[in-house]
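Example 3.2
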Amino acid sequence: MGLSLSLVTEDKEIPGIKQKPALLPFSSFTGSCILFDLETSSLKLDSEILQIAALYTVSGDKFDTYIQPNKSIAPSSSAVTGLTANGNILFYNGKPVHAYNAHNAVNDVNSLHKLMTLFKVEKQDVLEFSFSVESIVENMKYDKIVKVDAESFGDLVKGKYMSAQMAVRCAQSGLKKCHLDLAFHRKGFQGLLDLLSQRRQDGSPRVTKTAAVIKKITGYYDK
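Structure, written as tokens:
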């Protein structure tokens, strides 16, 4: 084989199967509700908040503020929010927000409040979709790690030995490219098959058990 497996030394052992951390719900709720809505620069994990609005359901007090982003605003986000930026000025539908009271996020929280009142949303209903900050943070950390680890399969994806979706699935299970290098270095095709088809607790494969898909990956090492 003409391929160097120098990356094998990056990780000397293959990790066990990783699962996305569960979102942990609150067991009780004794306070009142504050509804809030965010407008962001994109849907990516590194997006920035452009506007935040909140409404206290007991008193009706409201909070609303705009935040000047440090990064560019995605066109897809501007199409939904109407918010754009030029230099140090934030615009709503082409007008500076400091001169135009857009309050698009405020409208959203007002609508949420009306819906909660109309459908008589109880505290137990809120609890069902409320999660601890700690578990949300752990989920976000997991997603960031998956993004980085999926990028390690870049050469395989570019060479069409593996799909981008497959790279993400590998990363979600705790694998990086160096782990595939290690598995192939040890047992070739069988090593990759054993690794990628490893059974989860529910009986499903870690990534895939389709021999043809795994055979295609071995083409990267056989080239």
